[in-house]
Request: fold
Amino acid sequence: MQAEQTDFKFTYSTMGQGDSDAFHGDFDAGVEEARQKAGATYPNFIADEAREANSYNDDISPTDRNLILGYFANGTADDTRDAIQAAKSAYRTWSEDWHERVRILRAAADLISERKYFFAAVMCLEVGKSRLEAMGDTEEAADLIRYYCQQMEDANGFFKRMGQLSPDEHVVSVLRPFGVWAVIAPFNFPLALSAGMSAGALVAGNTVVYKPSSDAPWTGLLLYDVFREAGLPAGVFNYVNGPGSVVGEELVTNPDVDGIVFTGSKEVGMSAYHRFSPEYPKPCVTEMGGKNPAIVTVNADAELAAEGVMRSVVGLSGQKCSACSRVYVHPSLEVEFLDRLVEKTRAVVIGDPSERGVFLGPLVNESAYQTYQGAVEVARRDGTILSGGNTLSDPPFDRGYFVEPTIVTGLPTDHELFYKELFVPFVTVGVVETLEEAVDLSNRSEYGLTAGVYSSDPDEVEWFFNHIESGVCYANRRSGATTGAWPGVQAFCGWKGSGSTGKGGCGPYYVQQFMREQSRTVVEASI
Reply:
């Protein structure tokens, strides 16, 4: 048996290198533990006290609709208001000592690392991530917390001495927290994004009311558990599961919420952004999706491009805001690129993502399943489906939301499928003559999250970087044409309709968004 390297870290770029027998043995144990614990009933937690509910939501696995992972309390507006008040009461003490905040949060990161196999197994069952992607999500969660703690430490708590206008004047600039933050999380990175958004707010000295995705309440509860066990005081992090129309609405409209950090659709994010600050400006940090292009120039390696595009299309069934969903390829490489892309996509193993060797699991829910079918219908009507285009309903797929990854050609480059975000494993390929034309078509989208280029010409790559309107850019990436950002390596920053601040998670400026500057001037008293 091959021994797993203890110092190996799963990232979205290196995960395949850790695919060992030892890893899978530990993962099997995690899956078994998760299955044994499935079916329990869970309350919400406000100031570390359990809050039962009048109704509970069935957390159903998208792989097997007969598997109920748990029953989770549906929070009410009153529950949410109580959580906001608990966070408000805990704020003053929590905001005082950044050294203590860093210590506690690093302890939470260590707990995530210690329990990573169980946490990743829960994600497999709950949202349909493959083993390796779920482990990447878990490792990223711990790294995000550690990275944001390091930012606070490197900046000395964001305390900076300034200049003097007179010898008896002493000035410092201090970044201070806002107060209570709402953290509204998505399903697709249910631990990493929940941990990253929460850690950014918490290490800055804010307190949090956390709403997990309704599709991933169990993973969200695991995050609450590690924060509590690491020593966060009561009220600093409050867990309120429930529908967005109730819990989310209260978080957006309650005047005692001082900031929002949100990851999800542009429609929901923009609604929150516009409605959150009726009386005075308040911070609303949003990441809202993408329609991410990959460009294959005349100087590209078709094999490399096909591998990178396939991984970005298929990873997590295309349910990533960074997923590649459109490609612009030079005519001289069209046939070779498409042949290789079809071959690689058809070779993808589809199945239960908690099993070894499965690369593509199910879509997360019925809504996504219907979105896929609608897109396929349009593609059949207006273009040509080269591969895929089918739902999988025969055993062993009959109890889940399984679909084939789909490649479409023959559509005009102004077709809706080139611009509408679908969040399913679906890519549209167009043929363009020049890099300039491809970049122009790419930039016509309302989104500007990620983009990739394949070219052996460094001048083409540099021109692409300088003209593409996207916050996260890659060149010649085999592990993912448009996917795979990692804390401290690639900042994940959306432009245009993809983000509200231009400063992204995983990057060096993230924590500062949860703080506001205070200038402090002291003049020596005359005697």
